[in-house]
Design goal:
Blueprint lengths: L1 E3 L1 H9 L6 H9 L1 E3 L2 E4 L9 H11 L6
C-alpha cells in the first residue's frame, strides 16, 4: 500500500503516461481519504516492479551516494 498526499498525487498525475494501464487503473480506483490517496497494489509478477519503484520514488527520493 502506498499513501500519496495532495502534493505527491500531483506528481503522480504529471507522470501518469509512464505507468502501465493496470497501475493507472489501481490509482484511479483508489480511495481518497483526508490524509491522502490509499493505493493498494498486489505484485503478482515482476512486470509491475518498475511502476512500484517509480511510485516509491515519489514518496521518498533515493539517497545520493
Amino acid at each position: 500500500m502506498i499513501i500519496l498526499g495532495k502534493d505527491k498525487r500531483s506528481k503522480l498525475e504529471a507522470d501518469r503516461e509512464h505507468y502501465t494501464k493496470e497501475v493507472q487503473e489501481k490509482c484511479d480506483g483508489a480511495q481518497t481519504c483526508h490524509d491522502g490517496k490509499w493505493i493498494m497494489l498486489e505484485p503478482v509478477d515482476a512486470s509491475l516492479f518498475p511502476d512500484f519503484v517509480r511510485l516509491l520514488n515519489i514518496k521518498r527520493k533515493p539517497n545520493k551516494r
